Amino acid sequence: MASYLYDLIARRAPSADKVFLETPEGRKLTYGDLAAGSARFAQALAKLGVVAGDRVAVQVEKSPEAILLYLACLRAGAVFLPLNTAYTPAEIDYFLGDAKPRVFVCDPASRDKLAAVAEKAGARIETLGVKEDGSLLDLARQQAATFADVERGKDDLAAILYTSGTTGRSKGAMLSHDNLASNALTLVDYWRFSKDDVLIHALPIYHTHGLFVAMNTLLLAGGSMFFLPKLDAELIMKLMPRATSMMGVPTFYVRLLQHAGLTKEATKHMRLFVSGSAPLLAETHREWRDRTGHAILERYGMTETNMNTSNPYAGDRVAGTVGFPLPGVSARVTDPDTGKPLPRGEIGMIEVKGPNVFKGYWQMPEKTKAEFREDGFFITGDLGKIDDKGYVHIVGRGKDLVITGGFNVYPIEVETEIDGMPGVVESAVVGLPHADFGEGVTAVVVPQKGAELDEKEIISALEQRLAKFKLPKRVLFVDELPRNTMGKVQKAALRQTYNDLYK
Ligand code: AMP
Question: Whose CA is nearest to atom 6 of ligand 1?
Answer without folding.
Answer: 302
